[in-house]
Design goal:
It is built from 12 helices and 15 strands. With 404 residues, it is an alpha+beta fold. The strands form 3 sheets. Strands 3, 4, 5, 6, 9, 10, 11, 12 and 13 form a 9-stranded mixed beta sheet that branches. A 4-stranded antiparallel beta sheet has the order 2-14-1-15. It has a two-stranded antiparallel sheet with strand order 7-8. A hairpin with a 2-residue loop joins strand 11 and strand 12. Helix 2 runs antiparallel to helix 8, helix 8 crosses helix 10 and helix 10 packs antiparallel against helix 11.
Length: 404
């Protein structure tokens, strides 16, 4: 029997009992759709995170120095001298001190506002953004004079501007640790402009923040001249810190490229686990196909006997049932792919509508993922359809004809 004829017979068999065929395909449909959705979400999340990292700057280096009992601690001046010494690797550096201070305006207290002490180099005027991706909406950022003279000025996030000053914060005054500060700049919206979010932030000169801090962990944001020099810049920073502390555990230096690789690796492991879990549905679907094919072989025993008595060989019977099983799973795979693509697009629309800042997220299925899903669905049908097909091929034609 030719391949085309076997395929037409398989379609005819499926159309004879549509409900049974649909239930047989259900496991394959669910499994393929789940794999498509998971892979699409994983790819979308990976692209979204990489885009966010690139927006911040792939040449950003984060430095954390832990409290120690050393007589000598690293100072901002050490980093400034390092930038001057290695201009081929290092572009800029800014302290990033977290201050523990109450933020108030009138009788209102903002308990979840993050207060950071930074220098003027945190902001890049050419790009109109800080090194961690925040853009200036109004006014100006801290200047060298502000930082050097420790002037009582600050830059606030969008949440404080809206909630504290109804969008007119520029030039207004708020108190930090009981001391009045004048707002000289307002940042554009970065997060969802809620309490405690990335928009609930205040930047002030790092010398003033150091007076409010409890002497805990120090942080510095360093930028290398390019992504290619970030590894060399990291080495330069680590050598300086080791020279001061003589202990590699006293500090941590991480480039943005390393963070991207670490996040991609973690996401890859998570997606692999989820895909394996979703693939269990494919195995269950394959078992369902094998079960139905065994029933089909039993129901068509006399048909098999007639065909064998007319000269059909065992390989003809085997190929017929294998093609039928593969066709069943292939159709289920196509339906599952269509369902998965539809749901992936739906998740993309929901994310853009419901999640603030997720405009760039897109769970788009890849052609490779679709091709692999279809191939696996067909393979599952052929694999689990072989046992019933082989059983049919071994029927004795005389016994098959006498089967009632």
């Amino acid at each position: 029997m030719k391949m085309g004829q076997s395929f037409r017979m398989a379609i005819k068999s499926l159309m004879t009992s549509k409900m049974r065929a649909l239930l047989t395909m259900l496991g394959i449909i669910i499994g393929v759709a789940a794999v498509i959705i998971i892979v699409s979400l994983g790819n979308g999340m990976q692209q979204y995170m990489n885009a966010q990292f690139e927006q911040v700057g792939v040449n950003l280096i984060q430095v954390y120095v832990y409290p120690s009992g050393n007589n000598r601690d690293v100072e901002p001046e050490d980093f400034y001298q390092l930038v001057e010494k290695y201009p081929q690797y290092l572009d800029s550096v800014s302290p990033y001190l977290s201050a523990s201070a109450a933020v108030r305006h009138g009788t209102d207290e903002y308990k979840h506002t993050s207060v950071y002490g930074v220098s003027e180099t945190l902001y890049n005027a050419e790009k109109n953004q800080t090194v961690n991706g925040e853009k200036l909406k109004e006014g100006r950022f801290l200047s060298y004079v502000d930082v050097e003279r420790e002037q009582k000025v600050c830059v606030i996030g969008n949440y404080l501007n809206q909630d504290m000053f109804q969008g007119k914060g520029l030039g207004q005054t708020l108190t930090i640790g009981g001391i009045p500060y004048t707002v000289i700049g307002v940042l554009d919206q970065k997060a969802d402009s809620t309490e405690g979010s990335g928009d609930d932030v205040v930047y002030l000169p790092y010398g003033l923040a150091g007076q409010m801090s409890s002497g805990g962990m120090q942080a510095y944001l360093v930028t290398s001249t390019s992504q290619d020099t970030s590894s060399a810049a990291k080495g330069v920073i680590e050598r300086m810190l080791y020279r001061i502390y003589q202990d590699e555990g006293a500090y941590m230096v991480m480039t943005m490229s390393e963070m991207m690789e670490m996040m991609d690796s973690m996401l890859g492991v998570l997606m692999t686990i989820l895909v394996i879990i979703a693939a269990i549905s494919l195995v269950v679907g394959g078992i369902g196909i094998m079960n139905i094919m065994l029933v089909s072989v039993t129901e068509r025993t006399r048909e098999i006997g007639i065909r064998k008595s007319l000269g059909a060989k065992g390989k003809d019977i085997r190929s017929q049932f294998i093609i039928e099983a593969g066709t069943t799973s292939a159709i289920g795979g196509v339906i599952g792919i269509a369902l998965g693509v539809l749901l992936a697009n739906l998740f993309t629309a929901l994310a853009s509508a419901l999640v603030s800042g997720a405009d760039g997220f897109a769970a788009v299925p890849t052609a490779g993922g679709i091709a692999v899903s279809f191939g696996v669905s067909v393979g599952i049908g052929i694999l689990f359809g072989y046992l019933p097909a082989n059983k049919a091929a071994k029927f004795n034609p005389i016994d098959a004809l006498r089967y009632d």
